Amino acid sequence: MIRLENVVKKYPHMERPAVKNLSMEINKGEICVFVGPSGCGKTTTLKMINLLIRPAGGKIYINGKDVQNQDPDKLRQNIGYVIQQIGLFPHMTVYNNIATVPRLLGWEEKRIKERVDELLDLMGLYPNENRDKYPNALSGGQRQRVGVARAMAADPPIMLMDEPFGAVDPIVRAQLQNEFLRLQEKIKKTICFVTHDIDEAIKMGDKIAIMRSGELIQFDTPENILFAPANPFVEEFVGFDRALKVLNLLDVRTVMKKKLVTTNKNDSWEGVTQKFKEHRSSFLVVTDDRVRILGYVNRQEMETHTDRRWQERIRSFSTTLPLNATLKDALAEMLQHDVAVIPIVNDDNELTGIVSMEDLRSYIGEAYEDEENDDNPVIMVTGRRGA
Amino acid sequence: MEILQYFMKQWDRILEYTLNHAYLILIGILCSLVLWISVGIAVRNNSKSAGTILGVGSFLMSVPSISLYGILMVIPGLGLSRTSAVIGLVLYSMLPIVRNVYMALNGIDPSILEAARGMGMKPRYVLWKVQLPMALPIIFAGIRVALVMMVGTATLAVYIGEQNLGRLLTYGIERSRSDMIITGAIMVSLIAVLVDYLMEYLQRKLVSPGIMDYDKKPASGEVEYDGI
Amino acid sequence: MAFDWSRVLEVLRTSKATLDVKALLAQHLKLVGISLAAAVLIALPVGIMLTRPRFKRYLPKVMGVLNISQGIPSLAVVAIFLPLAGIGTFPSIMALTLYALLPIARNAIAGIDAIDASIIESARGMGMPALKVFWQIELPLALPVIISGIQTAAVVTVGTATIADLIGGGGLGRLIFTGLSFFEPELIFLGSALAAVIAIALDQLLGLVGKLLTTPRGE
User: What distance in Å separates residue A170's CA from the closest CA in chain B?
Assistant: First the structure.
């Protein structure tokens, strides 16, 4: 939907171009995050899409139309624009701020009123309370929300966002990010997002464009960037803890086992050991006669304690996780509760699957298998170890 | 040019006028500084008194300087004297100096003052070692304004008996002598501009570079736009 | 010199042409009114134009000149019009207008410059045409500072107008200078007091206008 072809921007007072020969395509309905160190050209690129900065070379197409052939004002009226400092008009009420672009487009006041209320609602701000407030009566988070609402007022298909959540504290920022992602699920706009924070990029982006010194270094899905960084710069930029970042990205459904290998509590020690051998699993779920879950036994523990009183080593599940929990959540819970296994439950609290530390390790291990051959010592230890 | 001729011919008179002009301003500014900076410091923590004082200063400035002289002239004990002239100058410079002292002292980031007190500094110490130095740029700006204004106010002081460059202008007008008028106008303007430049130079030299934000560049990462 | 209050009252009631207080008052107001209006009509547009992207590069130079001319004493400005334009109402108005240009232009520029750049950027980024941005965003936000500049100019003009009598402008200066020439303190007082009153009244009036025109921001 947005296509950049060999876009160049050079400022007279700078030695190297701010943006050098950038070519990429952003698909409809995707969030594309531009990320990179300070001065990499990400904001410049963003601002060229709505012509706040004029490209020195190359072309930019939106839906096949060259943006430079269009009237800049009309172009921008159909693109939502949110900046870090927000730029709310201090002398206008929240209502009038949000109504700005609809008014420019000639909407009738009735429609505008409905839309403003709808947006305030969407952003989690009570319309009756906030409609007539002035920006200085709002908190930082509220201002940011109004800023986003204002950008969405005319329902533009494209939105450009330059560090929109940067000016608030981390807790509010996380809230805003989550709310925005939820919103995007419903409205599916094409979004270009600029940030310097790689974690935000991974969280928000369907695609990530990593830039450096005006050049596009890697343009890929978050998974690919984490699993296969294109060069040492990307590796370093993403962070050497990228394995952990991957955990944050994937949810438990990726590794969870739906088939439970069970054993009855009345089974003999030999029977249990046999089951372990058969299924090569690191744990077995223990049920009672009525197939109710009592807990689980850990293979390692079985092997360490040579007495046969395995029933004493049945551990109960002290915690569960929902289906949309990330692998990082799972790891955190395991570490915190000192368990190796966590059941996954659905919204109705029914057991849907199970995640084990072993599953986590093998999944990540396989993904980074190739890097075992690198001599970079900081990469997380991989490989399958016998459990 | 007749102006140049005039200048050469009356050089000694012009010099005398200039010196008187300078002398008057000097006394004026010294008295003003002593008086108004003290007042500004005195009311720094009292917004009500400050409001009243600034109101008075504002009122004084609305009175045309010629009027101020006119009124001073009438007061017994003053009349046509240098004292009256100085009082006129001092009264006129009340607002710029007091206002800037007050605003500067109150405009300091409270967290800095809190840090100072937190370190155990006594209020007096904080005033002299922290507040005043930090307030210096703004106070200096106020003094600069007052000083430049004084060049003009002193020019009018000829109506209260002073013999300075204003004479060239008033005589010139009375007798329709362009050469006097132009010489006078150039001289006072020159002095005003010189004083202004001098003050700016001093400001750059004396005030700590840490408090001046002369060449503010946009923070790195902040991209300006082509402004279209 | 003994101050004689009855003399003050006498002068107020007189209709002698040279001391007709009402007429002089009217003349003074006329001088101030016309000059101020002219100064606003010239300085505002010029000041605003200088903040537009196209002319921004001239801004520092113009501001430099303006700031230098700030120091020039009012007497010099008034006096210089004598050889230039003679005496009378018109030269007086010219001098007063010239003198009032500076505070108005300076505040217009400062007021617009002071607006947070991100507000303008977000407005343009939303697709607001430049003209709309000026009328709906820049002007309203800069208005308090602009009006403050006009206030300053007004007060200064009232004061300078008193000296305008020297080049034939008339007004309350007539009272003052007559008083000076004939050693009549009552006249000096009258002229001065009235001038002060007008100056303060104008200041308050413009302040009120400013308040009415400024949109509330809940501050």
Answer: 20
